[in-house]
Design goal:
Blueprint lengths: L2 H28 L6 E5 L2 E2 H12 L2 E3 L2 H4 L3 E2 L2 E5 L1 H9 L4 E5 L4 E6 H7 L43 E5 H7 L4 H5 L5 E3 L11 E3 L2 E2 L5 E4 L2 E4 L8 E8 L3 H4 L6 E7 L7 E9 L3 E11 L6 E13 L6 E16 L2 E14 L7 E2 L2 E2 L16 E15 L4 E21 L9 E2 L1 E25 L2 E23 L9 E2 L18 E20 L3 E19 L8 E23 L2 E11 L17 E13 L4 E13 L2 E3 L6 E3 L2 E14 L4 E16 L14 E10 L4 E10 L2 E2 L7 E2 L2 E14 L2 E10 L7 E3 L9 E2 L4 E9 L1
Parallel strand pairs: 3-7, 12-15
Antiparallel strand pairs: 1-5, 2-4, 6-7, 8-14, 9-10, 10-11, 12-13, 14-15, 16-17, 16-47, 17-18, 18-19, 19-20, 20-23, 21-22, 23-24, 24-26, 25-28, 26-27, 27-29, 29-30, 30-31, 31-32, 32-33, 33-34, 34-37, 35-36, 37-38, 38-39, 39-40, 40-43, 41-42, 43-44, 44-47, 45-46
Helix pairs in contact: 2-4
């Protein structure tokens, strides 16, 4: 590491220490404050009294109508703290309360207190009416991604993290990569098709299939994710082929969407910010009948702005209506539609010079002027029906269809800086693409006992189909009529000088499979859970590639058929103490890139991976603070890499990733919330004729994040955080390095009420100290190196009622 890097890291260590001590000092001062409020409430119904309490204190109340019905609250007049006033309101009602996060109080009945076991670590809140105005805070709800059942994350033998909506709101995350900064061992890759897709690495392993994300457990290839209708972002770490079939071994990202609620709630938010950002989001939900058996939700968002990169601009529209219908008390039907329309200027990023990215301003665009925007449209429909036969058995049928169409227009650097040390050659690329996916799953979950053993069994069958059609035009130097671009003193040419293009080549990949899963979670002595699962996949794929569509003389048509393979996973979780459990697992995966095309026209070999994982999990404060410490060793065989400037791939043998991860989230006090992560990664290409011994690209040895929020009694909130990422290899050849960086972000918000409406005014500064850094690189070449955003400001105002 250079002396400059050491000095910079020391400076930010001092900064981090200062921020933390400042936050602790603030907490120490204000936690002792006992703010009083002026109450003038007469005796009234308990429901009305709690509403008056909420309006006066700016705290949210979550209470079931059945719990407060028929009860009367005594008069509360005078100056009281929030705690004193609430205890007076509830006196004589037989009810109590519990903080579910820094802003929300749940009202609970006395019978619920006794059955919940008081305030012990196993205490559970009774059912309450959770409205959209009641945030869950930084304590993520239990995820079903690890097992596709209701097994709590604390009892699971796998590592799973979640970023709840409250964190997204506080950080004003507009992109998926912003939310994932809060999760250990997740990084951004530059191979994102010039910004059209979100592409990441998990545990050092790339998610090689462009945009492959799960949405409510459905597998789909998603263009850039819009977070407007996302409730929680989940990350399941490691090889999970035993449950999800063909999947990259690093892990999977699952987006949990917002669902219809059974109480009416409406919100409207307007954001404005740097680089002409305007972002409008509307959200309406509630029942459609008196019985609350039919519920809806409608989410609409529109965002537009300029990129911090020269000449870049974008716009994004989202419409997402949903319906939930309780056909009977045992049968529920859900359906969701989603429509997205986007326009982006494609950007090939920066390039490498020597062993570093070329030293030019982050905003510099390497291309031509007046490149047309690249439009895309996306339609999705998913539906599910669930039927509970009894308390032990239930069945679910789910299905999804989506279609995506896009036109690409791009001019960018063909390779790194030329031997002259100043210029880059440019390529011209256009494409028309249409993708269609069908996915269906039928599952049966049952609970039963065999002697002293308790079983939770899952059986499922699924079908997946993906088809794509692409017409491409791709020309590189010296055939493209563009002179080399001087990266230091660019003299830009115009897109209009390029000759009219025609389709040059075509590709039609198709992929489908059937998968069958059997999983059993066995509970022994209430503290030990053993999971055993096996999956059988039958896969077929085809790749049609025509290098000259005008003559059809260079067509390649290849079929791949896998006769079927079993993929196991096993694990255990043992609860040492009510707040501490240990876990371990062995898992395999059958990876995505089975239909890649090699340069000689043959198809790639199937990829496979194995993982060993173990660790400990902790939970405190009635489950409101959670932590996971995991150690893992992951090996992937038949690793594929995109060949630069082509539609072919290479297979570089075997890669290994091992390391340690720590994730903490929740809140420490009623007013202090945090989410933090740290990862140590040791990655290496272990088998390859050329790159053996090299590090995997975009995989830092050390990385971490910390974000904390403090809520003052007055409704004022502050938040601050740091993201630290170590040096990363820029490509498989390890010819250049992306240097380490530390980025600081801050926010301040004020919550107040106008009548019955709740208002939130918020201001965020991202990259507070304007740090120069790189998010990631393409990984297989010396191009597609993307700069992180400079300092940006976002102001927002939200109204809820």
């Amino acid at each position: 590491m250079s002396l400059h890097s050491v000095s910079r890291l020391h400076r930010y260590r001092v900064l981090l220490t200062t921020l933390l001590f400042s936050l602790v000092a603030a907490v120490g001062t204000h936690a002792q404050e006992q703010k009083t409020f002026a109450f003038a409430q007469g005796s009234m119904s308990l429901g009305d009294a709690l509403e008056g309490f909420s309006l006066t204190t700016n705290l949210d109340i979550a209470a079931s109508t059945d719990v407060v019905a028929g009860k009367t609250a005594p008069a509360v007049k005078g100056n009281f703290t929030a705690r004193e006033a609430l205890e007076r309101i509830l006196s004589g009602s037989g009810l109590s309360y519990r903080h579910t996060d820094a802003r929300t109080i749940a009202i609970i009945g006395s019978n619920a207190i006794s059955t919940a076991g008081g305030d012990g670590p196993n205490a559970e809140l009774p059912p309450v009416v959770v409205t959209a105005e009641s945030v869950t805070g930084y304590t993520a709800p239990d995820s079903t991604s690890a097992t596709k059942t209701n097994l709590p994350a604390f009892e699971s033998p796998f590592s799973i993290q979640a970023v709840p909506r409250a964190v997204v709101e506080d950080q004003k995350s507009t992109r998926l990569e912003d939310a994932l900064r809060n999760v250990s061992a997740v990084g951004k890759s530059g191979s994102d098709y010039n910004g059209l897709y979100d592409v990441f690495t998990i545990r050092g392993m790339p998610l090689t299939n462009y945009g492959l994300i799960y949405r409510d457990g459905f597998r789909q290839r998603v263009p850039q994710v819009n977070l407007d209708n996302i409730e929680t972002v989940e990350v399941l770490k490691g090889a999970s082929g035993g449950l999800f079939g063909r999947i990259e071994p690093g892990g999977l990202i699952n987006l949990v969407t917002k669902k219809p609620l059974d109480e009416a709630h409406y919100s409207l938010e307007q954001q404005v910010g740097s680089y002409s950002l305007t972002h409008t989001l509307g959200d309406a939900t509630g029942p459609l009948n008196e019985e609350n058996t039919l519920r809806y939700r409608m989410i609409a968002g529109y965002e537009e702005g300029d990129s911090f990169r020269e000449g870049g601009e974008y716009s994004r529209l989202l419409l997402s209506p949903s319906l939930s219908w309780d056909i009977t008390p045992q049968t529920q039907f859900n359906i969701n539609f989603e429509y997205k329309k986007s326009e982006d200027i494609l950007d090939g990023g920066h390039v490498a010079k020597g062993d570093r990215p070329v030293d030019i301003p982050a905003e510099r665009f390497l291309g031509v002027r007046d490149v047309p925007s690249s439009p895309s449209e996306y339609w999705l429909v998913n539906a599910s029906i669930t039927h509970e036969f009894n308390d032990q058995w239930k069945a679910k049928l789910r299905g999804v269809w989506w279609n995506w169409r896009a036109d690409y227009f791009e001019v960018g650097p063909n390779d790194g800086v030329n031997p002259d040390g100043r210029t880059v050659d440019l390529y011209h690329f256009t494409s028309q693409e249409e993708d269609t996916t069908w996915f269906a799953e039928l599952s049966l979950e049952g609970k039963f006992d065999t002697g002293a053993l308790k079983h939770d069994v899952l059986l499922s069958a699924e079908y997946y189909s993906f088809e794509s059609e692409q017409l491409n035009y791709f020309v590189t130097a010296p055939d493209v009529p563009l002179r080399p671009l001087d990266v230091f003193r660019p003299q830009y040419q115009n897109y209009s000088i390029l000759p009219p293009h025609r389709p040059q080549d075509a590709s039609k990949p198709k992929d489908e499979w059937w998968g069958f899963t059997l999983q059993d979670v066995v509970t022994i002595d209430e503290r030990l859970k053993i999971l055993a699962g096996i999956r059988y996949d039958i896969t077929s794929a085809s790749t049609y590639y025509d290098g000259d569509v005008s003559t059809n003389t260079n067509a390649i048509d290849r079929q791949f058929q896998d006769e079927g393979r079993f993929t196991p996973r096993v694990g255990f979780n043992y609860e040492l103490l009510p707040w501490l459990s240990v876990f371990g697992s062995y898992s395999e995966s059958f990876s995505d890139s089975t239909f890649g095309l090699l340069a000689d026209g043959s198809t790639t070999e199937p990829q496979s991976a194995t993982q060993y994982e173990g660790g400990v999990k902790g939970r405190w404060l009635d489950g409101r603070l959670n932590a996971t410490l995991a150690l893992f060793h992951l090996t992937k065989e038949n690793l594929t890499t995109d060949l630069p400037n082509s539609f072919f791939v290479t297979q570089s043998g075997e890669a290994r990733s091992r390391g340690v991860e720590l994730d903490v989230s929740g809140y420490l006090t009623e007013r202090l919330s945090l989410i933090a992560s740290y990862a140590y990664l040791d990655t290496e290409i272990t088998k390859d004729p050329v790159n053996q011994g090299n590090r995997l690209p975009n995989a830092p040895e050390h990385s971490g994040s910390l974000w904390a929020r403090y809520d003052f009694p007055s409704g004022f909130t502050i938040g601050a955080g740091l993201t630290a990422v170590g040096d990363r290899a820029g490509d498989l050849d390890n010819t250049f390095v992306l240097e380490s960086y530390i980025r600081a972000d801050v926010m301040a918000a004020y919550r107040f009420k106008v009548g019955n409406a709740k208002m939130t005014a918020q201001f965020n500064i991202n990259n507070l100290f304007n740090e120069d850094y790189y998010d990631g690189s393409g990984g297989s070449s010396r191009t597609y190196i993307y700069s992180g955003e400079p300092r940006t400001f976002i102001g927002s105002l939200r109204i809820e009622f």
